[in-house]
Amino acid sequence: MAHVLVVEDNPASLELMVYLLKAFGHAPLTACDGLEGIEAARCVHPDLILCDIQLPGADGVEVCRRLKCDLALRNIPLIAVTAFAMVGDREKLLGEGFDGYVSKPINPQTFIDQITPYLTGEIESGVPATKAA
Ligand code: MN
What we know:
With 133 residues, the chain is α/β, with parallel strands linked by helices. The protein has a single domain (3-132), classed as Response regulator (Rossmann fold), CATH 3.40.50.2300. The chain is built from five helices and five strands; from the N terminus they run βαβαβαβαβα. It has helices at 11-23, 34-44, 60-68, 87-96, 111-119; strands spanning 3-7, 27-31, 48-52, 78-82, 100-103. A five-stranded parallel beta sheet has the order 2-1-3-4-5, with helices on both faces. β4 (78-82), α4 and β5 form a beta-alpha-beta unit. The longest helix has 13 residues, at 11-23. It is globular, with a radius of gyration of 13 Å. The relative contact order is 0.17. Residues 127-133 have low confidence and may be disordered. The chain binds manganese (II) ion (MN). Manganese (II) ion binds next to loops. Manganese (II) ion is lined by residues 9-10, 52, 54-55.
């Protein structure tokens, strides 16, 4: 069981991720904007953070920058969850410091498999982007 922080302002996406995380025995907590997400990360120190890119408050890239320059938080795996579908966008996000990428719309068949390697330590935070694929 992992504590997974989901930062997402779209209610349908948020609900689906929360549903899937619970269905697989995890304990999700949620934030609906970037600043709330950063605050929640500080308070709870989750095992994994899933973060939308287009967010009110602070966008996902800003959230990433702030988390990755915080010594207490930088080692928490951080996965971008976004509709940006192009390869260049993916590389850009990994270059910003995200440890991985899940594309929206969320695929209920593959979502848990996509994030599990980050929970088991199979993919560690901070590995080169080429290995985080
Ligand atoms: Mn959004």
